[in-house]
Fold this sequence. Notes:
Layout: E1 7-12, H1 14-18, H2 25-36, E2 43-47, H3 51-62, E3 70-74, H4 85-90, E4 95-96, H5 98-109, E5 122-125, E6 128-133, H6 137-147, H7 151-158, H8 164-174, H9 201-206, H10 230-240, E7 246-250, E8 259-260, E9 264-265, E10 275-276, E11 280-283, E12 293-301, E13 316-320, E14 332-335, E15 339-340, E16 343-344, E17 347-348, E18 351-354, E19 365-366, E20 377-379, H11 387-395, E21 400-404, E22 408-414, E23 418-419, E24 432-433, H12 436-446, E25 450-457, H13 461-473, E26 484-488, H14 495-505, E27 509-512, E28 517-518, E29 524-531, E30 547-555, H15 559-577, H16 585-588, E31 601-606, E32 610-611, E33 617-627, E34 633-637, E35 658-662, E36 668-669, E37 674-679, E38 684-686
Parallel strand pairs: 1-2, 1-3, 3-6, 12-13, 22-25, 22-26, 23-24, 26-30, 28-33, 31-34, 33-38
Antiparallel strand pairs: 4-5, 5-6, 7-21, 8-21, 9-20, 10-19, 11-13, 11-14, 12-18, 15-18, 16-17, 27-29, 29-30, 31-37, 32-36, 33-34, 33-35, 35-37
Helix pairs in contact: 2-6, 5-6, 10-15, 12-15
Amino acid sequence: MEPKRKTAILIISDTASEDPTLDRTAGALAPILAREGKWEPPAIRIVPNNISQIQQAVCDWSDGSYWYDLVLLSSTTGFGVKDNTPEAVTTLIHRHVPNLFHDMVAETLKVTPSTKIARPIGGIREKSLIITLPGYPKGAMENLEAVLKLLPHAFLQNSRLLHTSGIKRVQNETGVTISPQLQHHHQHAHDHGIQKEHISPSDKSQSKPKGVAEGTDRRCPNYARPMASVEEALRIISERTPASTEVDTPVTTSIIGSVIAEDIYAAELVPAYRSSIIDGYAITVEEGKSTKGVFLIASFAHGKVSGALDPLKPRTVARVTVGAPLPPNANAVVMVEDTASSTIDGQEEAVVEILADDIVPGENVREPGSDIGLNSKILARGDLISPAEIGLLAATGTRTVKIFKKPRVGVLSIGDELVEHSDPCTLVGGQIRDSNRPSLLSCLASWGFETVDLGIARDPSSSLEHSLHVSLRGIGRVSSSVDVLVTTGGLSVGNIDYNTIIERSLGGTIHFDRVFMKPGMSTTFATVTLKATETDAAAKDAQQEHHTSKLLFSLPGTPSSALLTLNLFVLSSLHKLAGLGESSQAIVTKPWIAPQLGLPRVAVVLTHHFHLDPKRTEYHRAVVTGSRSDGRLYATSTGVDAIGQPSPRIGSLAKANALVVLRPGRGVGIKGEIVEALMMGPIHGSDTRIIC
């Protein structure tokens, strides 16, 4: 006896999600499944018409080790604005089964004409069969009964157990005739250990697409787009990077590295009271009168004093420390060095002698607001928050600020050959450690951006498509969506499949898929527009449809190329998203202090000859050292051979703090020549002058 299969029913309804007693569909479907005797009692969940919640529920039931064989979704799938189920499910399906719905629609049309305007959808995800049903009990029951008898055999096909005998059994039990053409692959003998080539060499030559030159292997990537220059690529990235998002946030140390989104004005005076700038004695000075003489010490004021101080009486002073408030009528402070006093047993006496005769009003006094006036501008839109800015905000009593929200970045490695760097296994065959992902994540974190480790996606298109989709949408094991998705690997060969997933499955736009540079030529940049979730659009007008643009950078698989292109292309986009491109008018008028997007550019002197590529600009990994003797910056390669610096050489990145820009040419870059460099890290100091 075959074991019963697990089923799940997802009810998608805004009203039923608030009051589950309003749902009638789950109760109508459960008896139909029970009557067949082949299904376990269904798991039932109710969610609102929200794409993210629908997808999360489907992934919970189809992904991982505890999966359900059959997942039924009951929802309106018509033309309504909130009929989101078809769109939510489509991107989750690995293999579609349209014929199943043709039969379902044909049967239900006999009793329900409105089925013509429904948009049913479904298919296989991992090992689960997903089917959408109407959102009302009668329609859901009719649709399920139309295909229910065929479903057990669909699972046999999904597990590849349906051979000739199984086909005949399906035909006998369901009355469905399977075309002989569909049985083609099971007509041969079952000696699966012998490989047979079904296409002759002459057929191969005839099947070559038009426009492909003779001798060209069809397995090679067929790039439909022209190769972009580095300058073009950076311009495209800047144009396609969305505007920065402004958020209100408390003033804490967590906003270090963020960018101010609006001009900020002081809420309080600094200092808030008249205070002393030295240790000494507060005194009341009258114009034209001497301050020399013996004075009675009336009080002692320090920075911790609370409450009001009493005014000074004639011929009295107050002992004060730096920053301490002054008595109301005190207008000067005499420094300790200008006084004399005697002590008894280490205790200061109650009087002090002032030796100076020329103390004037205002001497050694800091007036209220003399540092920062009330309502004066303290920070401008576009200012980068450093520890000094945190101190300024705290000093003026600023509790919240508006900043540009930093983007959230996910990193995904692609490749069947990849093994986790922490896996203790011994590598076999063509396996390699995944060094790119921890390297890229560490680099992003050092820049101050929130990162998400998305793991490894294997090469089959369904696995890659799923990984890209859940990362951008924030479903499955990814708790929330990322703003920027960075992938690495899997691009040097098979680029057509990757581009197809981006454009057709994700609905994205590829803006370039090659850059004329060395290394890093196989860099891809795309944007994917997604419908915003209800949370994203909460502050917007509910009557409008909102969309959000996600950025996708596909970086090469070689470690040096991946990290290089992250610095060169991804960083400039992250800077713009974080608001570094937003500067106030004050900064615009002073371009020398305006924040720069991407890596800072400097001029360096070559300490030796550098090999030049005859066609492409090379971004050469190097160590830049600053000479303390002549103040110049010098660049030394981290490693070269007879033909330059190979991109697979991972050791060349270990100590590099710069990318030396070597323009194409014949021969070498001459020792002592001045060229441009992009700084990836701090400059190393040197005590001696470097002789070139």
